[in-house]
């Protein structure tokens, strides 16, 4: 009997030893790699600090902070530093709207003017089109408008007045142009429908039930333990971030959080603990443009193939911070990176390094050109996020070049994948029928060929 017990204990210890060995073989290697990436960036003054979390198949592979939360006082980054997450806020706003749809308080097909007074000049713009950036609404983003909103008590409401008289960027549903205005409107709609401040509704609906105690609407006056300061990189050294009235980004980007709170959120969202399955599927699966074109932005979240791996997530940036949240469902992998510096190395830089340390990057397969590219040469013009863009396409041997008019840089598109389509990284460019179409994941632009 004793021999049997000893045998069982030996097998248990052996199994435990093997399991620990497996963990040690992955985590330290990843940690050493992350340490080197962050240390080089901190030593070269490209970032003040940051935090990164990698969670795969129920196991925490990496959860670490680096550098400084405050440079002036030489305060090291705490393990639970609270960062401004900017546009990562949008997924919370989208989930809040879908929760109200679930509760039958509104419909995705509703014209948004049912809840918010606004002259659309006869256009019907649905709640869904606000959520996926296809509304065509103009933006209030000039320096003069920003200063006007900075010193206003309710800049989110002032934004409605500033945008209303402007021309639309495009007709609703014809293109996808990333639109902060639309998400500010969604916050106002949440307040109208619930009768509660936007931040209170999120606190009651998401933050408290999920025990996200370090996530909140960012404040310039509230004393918040472990709140991280933001900076901007310049060749001459770091600079403090500019003052921001957080009611300007509002429901488009005013939240602050930690890596661990964001992991709680993402795991809850993607495992059915936040929304019903129909609403979750609506949130992560993009709609199509009016002409049936498939896009990559769903509702507050991207959903696209990142070099062969499905990725669902969102970035954020501004006023001293660059953030990224990534979920790879097929690999059950979560990567969250928060950086307190606007500069050459944001959250996406470090997150991408971790991604391709863990996953196999599958380059797009190049095929031989199957048409005469002389037929697509010409000048193409159309609306992009910040401006009217004009570029020139030229035919060269076995390919084409593109050049934005007014700029010296000339790109050669090298990765042809068939059907008049090239890949540039994960961007997809299709040129046919006198149109230059580019799916930039965050935006889908259509430039027309000039006659």
UniProtKB/TrEMBL annotation:
GO molecular function, one term: hydrolase activity
InterPro entries: AmpC-like, Beta-lactam-related, Beta-lactam/transpept-like, Beta-lactam_class-A_AS
Beta-lactamase-related domain segment(s): 35-346
Signal peptide: 1-21
Enzyme Commission number(s): 3.1.1.103
Keywords for this protein: Hydrolase, Signal
Keyword Hydrolase among UniProt keywords: yes
Record field: transmembrane: none
Superkingdom classification of source: Bacteria
The protein's name in its UniProt record: Serine hydrolase domain-containing protein
Organism of origin: Sediminicola arcticus
């Amino acid at each position: 009997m004793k021999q049997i017990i000893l045998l069982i204990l030996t097998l248990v210890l052996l199994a435990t030893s093997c399991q620990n060995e497996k963990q040690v073989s992955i985590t330290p290697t990843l940690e050493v790699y992350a340490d080197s990436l962050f240390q080089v960036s901190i030593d070269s003054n490209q970032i003040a600090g940051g935090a990164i979390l990698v969670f795969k198949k129920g196991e925490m592979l990496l959860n670490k902070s680096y550098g400084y939360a405050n440079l002036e006082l030489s305060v090291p980054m705490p393990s639970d530093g609270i960062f401004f997450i900017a546009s990562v806020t949008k997924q919370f706003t989208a989930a809040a709207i879908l929760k109200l749809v679930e509760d039958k308080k509104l419909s995705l097909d509703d014209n948004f003017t049912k809840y918010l007074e606004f002259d659309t000049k006869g256009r019907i713009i649905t709640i869904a089109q606000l959520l996926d950036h296809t509304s065509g609404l103009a933006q209030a983003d000039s320096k003069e408008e920003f200063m006007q909103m900075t010193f206003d008590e309710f800049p989110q409401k002032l934004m409605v007045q500033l945008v209303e008289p402007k021309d639309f960027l495009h007709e609703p549903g014809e293109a996808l142009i990333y639109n902060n205005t639309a998400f500010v409107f969604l916050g106002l709609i949440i307040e109208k429908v619930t009768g509660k401040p936007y931040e209170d509704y999120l606190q009651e609906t998401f933050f408290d039930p999920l025990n996200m105690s370090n996530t909140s609407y960012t404040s310039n006056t509230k004393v918040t333990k472990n709140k991280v300061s933001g900076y901007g990189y310049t060749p001459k050294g770091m600079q403090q971030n500019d003052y921001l009235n957080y009611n300007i980004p509002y429901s488009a980007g005013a939240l602050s959080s930690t890596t661990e709170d964001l992991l709680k959120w993402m795991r809850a969202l993607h495992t059915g603990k936040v929304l019903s399955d129909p609403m979750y599927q609506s949130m992560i699966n993009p709609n199509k443009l009016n002409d049936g074109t498939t896009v990559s932005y769903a509702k507050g979240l991207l959903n696209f193939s990142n070099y062969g791996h499905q990725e669902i997530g969102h970035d954020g940036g501004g006023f001293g911070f660059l953030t990224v949240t990534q979920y790879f469902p097929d690999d059950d992998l979560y990567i969250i990176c928060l950086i307190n510096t606007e500069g050459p190395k944001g959250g996406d830089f470090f997150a991408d390094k971790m991604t391709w340390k863990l996953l196999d990057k599958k380059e797009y397969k190049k095929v031989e050109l199957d048409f005469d590219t002389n037929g697509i040469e010409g000048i193409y013009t159309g609306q992009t996020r910040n401006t009217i863009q004009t570029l020139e396409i030229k035919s060269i041997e076995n390919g084409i070049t593109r050049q934005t008019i007014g700029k010296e840089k000339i790109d050669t598109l090298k990765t042809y994948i068939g059907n008049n389509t090239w890949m540039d990284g994960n961007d997809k460019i299709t040129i046919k029928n006198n149109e230059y179409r580019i799916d930039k994941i965050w935006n889908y632009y259509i430039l027309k060929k000039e006659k």
